[in-house]
Amino acid sequence: MLPERASRVPAGPLRNRAVTVIRVGTRASALALAQTQQVAARLGSAAQAEVELVPITTHGDTSSDSLSSLGGTGVFASALRDALLAGECDVIVHSLKDLPTVAHPGLRIGAVPKRADARDALCARDGLTIDTLPSGARVGTGSPRRMAQLRAARPDLTIVDIRGNIDTRLARVGGTDAGIDDDRRLDAVLLAAAGLGRLGRSDAITQLLELGDWPTAPGQGALALEVVDIRPSRELEQGLQAVDHAASAAAVDAERLVLAGLEAGCAAPVAASAVLDSELLFLTATVYAPDGTARITASHAATPDSRGAKHLAEAARDVASRVVAELLGNGAADLAPLRSMKD
Ligand SMILES: NCc1[nH]cc(CCC(=O)O)c1CC(=O)O
């Protein structure tokens, strides 16, 4: 698929000189453009290069068919990867939680920037929260994990399976007097706090759900910069190093290894949350029964020998393999269709 004509984003003082241009591939949704612009600006200034955004419209963006009929959330990633492999851009920016856990031959993750808020956010009418939504209230989400969590917390709510971009979802929230068609009207939607923040829509949040009670998708709130697996230009290498955040990379690595170890797809009802604090890489993961009536959680910690990338990667593998073994040992594979929408 050919990218639309790219827009040039000048990288500051060098704009009038002949400089290296780094072409940054991105999905063309408002969220993807916002987050890519933010990271591309930092990449450009660290690389002392000009950055050019290459928006790529994927079939997943234009089709209103269900994601599973299109082949899962991996449809977004694969169109971007095709453009990268075809040399139409030098680096692509993904939302990490939408990126399949299997490595793509010839490509590698070049950087994981500092992660934004990993929490889910309830955006409800009239300041309502999970506890105060009235019985039968209609809550929109398309995520099997969020559905299971909602059913567990409030079996009396009506869950509405929705798709679409963040603004479209928010526009459906309102009271009966809000002028929204009854069949579309929702009392609340559940969204990632990070996406709302990047779009400047945090004002719509009525409750931030703490990760301890309400863990989120592996990689939520984090981005990944993917490049071809050969030595990048000096400028690109410099830019990648500058935007990479080792603690975030280790945490999302551990979370994604849980998904991979369970052989689960990114739409499976699985939550994982890892943090690297001063000494410890702590990982907790939960597999839900889709109807919310049961869950299995496992938590482990590892102590990396140092903060070097190699030791952090080892700690991530170690902690994830213990969490996966415990989840499977406790019957996680019987609780939920883990392979659902595996990419
Ligand atoms: N699958 C959709 C998706 N992919 C990344 C984000 C938002 C932010 C993020 O987690 O980086 C969202 C929207 C949402 O879940 O509300």
Automatic annotation (TrEMBL):
<comment type="function">
    <text>Tetrapolymerization of the monopyrrole PBG into the hydroxymethylbilane pre-uroporphyrinogen in several discrete steps.</text>
</comment>
<dbReference type="Pfam" id="PF01379">
    <property type="entry name" value="Porphobil_deam"/>
</dbReference>
<dbReference type="GO" id="GO:0004418">
    <property type="term" value="F:hydroxymethylbilane synthase activity"/>
</dbReference>
<comment type="subunit">
    <text>Monomer.</text>
</comment>
<feature type="domain" description="Porphobilinogen deaminase C-terminal">
    <location>
        <begin position="250"/>
        <end position="300"/>
    </location>
</feature>
<dbReference type="GO" id="GO:0006783">
    <property type="term" value="P:heme biosynthetic process"/>
</dbReference>
<keyword id="KW-0627">Porphyrin biosynthesis</keyword>
<protein>
    <recommendedName>
        <fullName>Hydroxymethylbilane synthase</fullName>
        <ecNumber>2.5.1.61</ecNumber>
    </recommendedName>
</protein>
<keyword id="KW-0808">Transferase</keyword>
<dbReference type="InterPro" id="IPR000860">
    <property type="entry name" value="HemC"/>
</dbReference>
<dbReference type="InterPro" id="IPR022419">
    <property type="entry name" value="Porphobilin_deaminase_cofac_BS"/>
</dbReference>
<dbReference type="InterPro" id="IPR022418">
    <property type="entry name" value="Porphobilinogen_deaminase_C"/>
</dbReference>
<comment type="similarity">
    <text>Belongs to the HMBS family.</text>
</comment>
<dbReference type="InterPro" id="IPR036803">
    <property type="entry name" value="Porphobilinogen_deaminase_C_sf"/>
</dbReference>
<dbReference type="GO" id="GO:0005737">
    <property type="term" value="C:cytoplasm"/>
</dbReference>
<dbReference type="Pfam" id="PF03900">
    <property type="entry name" value="Porphobil_deamC"/>
</dbReference>
<feature type="domain" description="Porphobilinogen deaminase N-terminal">
    <location>
        <begin position="22"/>
        <end position="228"/>
    </location>
</feature>
<dbReference type="InterPro" id="IPR022417">
    <property type="entry name" value="Porphobilin_deaminase_N"/>
</dbReference>
